[in-house]
Amino acid sequence: MSIIGKSLTLTIANDVQFLPTVLRAVNDMAHIQGFTPEDIHRLELGTEEAVANVIKHAFAHGTTEYFSIVITAESLGLRITIFDQGMPFDPEQLPAYSPEEVATTMTSRGLGLFLIRKFIDEVSFHNLGRKGHETVLFKYLHRENIAQLLAQEEKQQAEQERNEDELPKGAVSYDVRRMKPTEAVEVSKCAYSSYGYAYVYENIYYPERVRELNENDNLISFVAVSDASEVMGHSALVPSHDDTGIAEMGVSFVKPRYRGQGCLKALSEARLSEGARRGLTGVYMQAVTTHPYSQKPAHANGFSDTALMLARADVLEFKEIEQKKRQRESLVIAYKYLSTPPAMTVYAPVHHQQILQKTFDLLDARIEWGKEVIANVQGVQANIALKTDSYSGATITVKAYGEEYALTIKKLVKGLCYDGVIAIYVQLPLSDPITQSAIIEMEKIGFFYCGIMPGSNGNNIFIMQYLNNYPFDYSILRLDSDFGKELALYIEQDFQRINTIL
Questions:
Q1: Quick one: CA torsion of 281, 285, 286, 291, rounded to 10 degrees?
Q2: Bridge partners for 71 per DSSP
Q3: Helix/strand/coil (H/E/C) assignment for every residue in 435-487
Q4: DSSP assignment letter at 435
Q5: Which pLDDT belongs to residue 105?
Q6: 85 by DSSP, 3-state: which?
């Protein structure tokens, strides 16, 4: 009998003597699910550090308190959620680990968090306000990527395909349709042939993950398939976990020799039709800015730029594109409503209202400016989530404001900077009156304008960004739309304004 979707919950006292009990439970669940002994060991090490951190730091010294660990078997892997109602999480208690510091001072400062991120695939921290705090660990079950599955001859063939010249336009006929489960490995091969290991959506290189994500509708893949049954290209809808009314149109790539056949245009039309069929409020795309070519299909389909995320991903290399100077890849977000949105009330300080008004106007969305409200959050705990990624980036999401929310974010930023995170983003709810003053509080920390992410039911998100001592060259940006260029200039000027204030 499958254990997928089933959980085991442990409630323990804040005493390290209970750690072996927790680790045995993790071991048993992982073993039943089919993890390798090596990955089970990693799971145990990461869980041990995470639970130990709660025991040591979440409660006042000398008190006996209880907290819960929920171990859930999911189709993609094992999720471990550690829930406590102790003191607010302070990242300064988990500073960055420095091997050099260990060698010189013989201390293990920050070793716990370092080990958690080393052994666990995804780590996030959530401040749930009065409900407490969560540390969420996730370990993928399927670890075999396409490079491990390919024979040496197949790898060589993929590398050759990566350097092939484009065929003449109209040289190949093809169909666009939903991916079949048996084609997951071919999709991974296509990604490998197109980008090597440079593509930012890491799951695409793991065929079993691609298959299972599609079976669970967490990835809605479309493929362009030739008459010879070859997967020429792929693109997908990626539903949002935070807002079920929107989805990303992404994970798009075409084998080099088939570029110019119109595959991406046909794939985009298929995804838009699917989004409308599912009743989505809107869809968005993220495109690189080293070149404008991936931005063009979005604008041709009626998308409008809404945000520019600087230094969002690792440096990428592109064939036949001259890159005199390389820096971390920036992404432009473009959005399209699939149905006419109702009038929305938004809250923002006056100095950002002009750029916001133009952004919403280009989306054909009607907004009204809310009046400033002095809200009393005394005694209220903020609901704040932190998520890091493997590209030296992090996102702080404010789900609800509370007392000392700005101080909490300031401490989070300090901890992330210590940990070597380069690009930090904060997301604020534009429908909350407190956001009007919260934006100014974030500017005092060093955050500057990024843009917006429109949502469903008026749940629009205001995004700000923080660069951790990263020298950014705006002249390298290549933007397709006039508003994209205007947005980049506005962001550069806002960055300069913030640095003048600080």
A1: -150
A2: 8, 80
A3: HHHHHHHHHHHCCEEEEEECCHHHCCEEEEEEECCCCCCHHHCCCCCHHHHHH
A4: H
A5: 30
A6: coil
Task: Identify whether the C-beta of residue 148 lies closer than 8 Å to the C-beta of residue 205.
Answer: no
**One fold for 7-140 and 344-501:** no
One-letter amino acid of 129: G
Please tell me what DSSP assigns to residue 167. P
Low-confidence ranges of the chain (pLDDT < 70): 1, 88-115, 117, 316-324
Give tens-digit pLDDT for 291-308: 898 898 899 999 999 999
Closest by alpha carbon to 360, among 368, 372, 349, 350?
A: 368
- How far apart CA 344 and CA 341 sit, in angstroms, is 8
Q: What is the pLDDT of residue 430?
A: 97
pLDDT at 438: 96
Q: Rg of the Cα trace of the chain?
A: 24
> Which amino acid appears at position 47 of this protein?
T
Phi and psi at residue 335, to the nearest 5°: -125, 150
Domain coordinates in residue numbering, the chain:
7-140, 142-280, 344-501
Burial of 228 (0-12, 13-18, 19+ CB in 10 A): exposed
pLDDT for res 294: 83
Looking at the structure, give the CATH architecture of the domain made up of residues 344-501. 3-Layer(aba) Sandwich (3.40)
How many residues in total does the chain contain?
A: 502
Structure tokens at 231: 């997967």
- Residue 373's pLDDT is what? 76
For residue 223, the one-letter residue type is: V
- Please state which CATH number belongs to domain 7-140: 3.30.565.10
- Strand 344-346 and strand 367-369: the pairing is parallel
C-alpha 83/C-alpha 126 separation (Å) is: 9
Q: In Å, what is the CA distance from 353 to each residue of 360, 370, 439?
A: 10, 11, 12
Fold annotation for 142-280: Aminopeptidase (3.40.630)
Task: Identify the CA nearest to 80 among candidates 68, 95, 66.
Answer: 68
Distance CA 127, CA 22 (A): 23
β-partners of residue 124 are 136, 387
**Residue 332 near residue 287 (C-beta atoms within 8 A):** yes
Residue type, 202: E
* Residue with token string 């994209």: 484
